Amino acid sequence: MTQQPQVALVTGANSGIGVEIARRLVADGFRVIVSGRNSSRGEAVAEELGPEAFWIQADLSDSASVQNLIDETVRTGGRLDVLVNNAGVDLVGPILEVSEEQIRENYATNVFGTIFALQAAGRVMRDQGDGGAIINITSRLAMIGVPTMSLYSAGKGAIQSLTTAGAVELAPHNIRVNAVAPGMAKTPLYDTWVSEQEDPEATEREVASKIPLGRIALPSDVAAAVSYLASPGAEYITGTTIPVEGGYLAQ
Fold this sequence. Notes:
By secondary structure, the chain is α/β, with parallel strands linked by helices.
């Protein structure tokens, strides 16, 4: 009798780190649901990743859409073993100038969407009876201060606290809750930002020079940490955060 593969859901898997996480989990033997807002990109990602990848459109800022995503994930995959809360949007601007509308729009996805997904997935994992793993993608900015990133940092800090408290509360159901905190990583957003600088090559050298390991993270570096936390090798790890930032926070 063929054993059904474990099922992982990766939110925000249209591009960048989310795609690489989904690719790694497929390689690890998971049936992977990729989700995001842009259906054309998402469908292309699922097709690229092969027959064990499936696309489901969702807007994490809407709780009904999140619940539908979890329901469709279970219908498509048969169960849910791993949730990777990767969906998020940037918020850059002086703390005294960012508008209420910008803050509410950002937190609707970065904070409330992550919470809604954890709740809905957690209920499924609890009711399955054999637990699961929830992995939140936070940021090094949850632990340090950077000008113009204060409100984005505060949102990621909320998810950092959700990770530790959620781990304790869900432990009786054998649901592990951990986080991965990337530093600067080579994503499409990063490439766009670098290309807009007066001297892109000098900017990249300057950024890398501030990182002890001397280079900017690749999406595959983040995916490797997620892969570990989703694996049986991490079955006794919960409530922790793995920084993937080349030693930046150790300085």
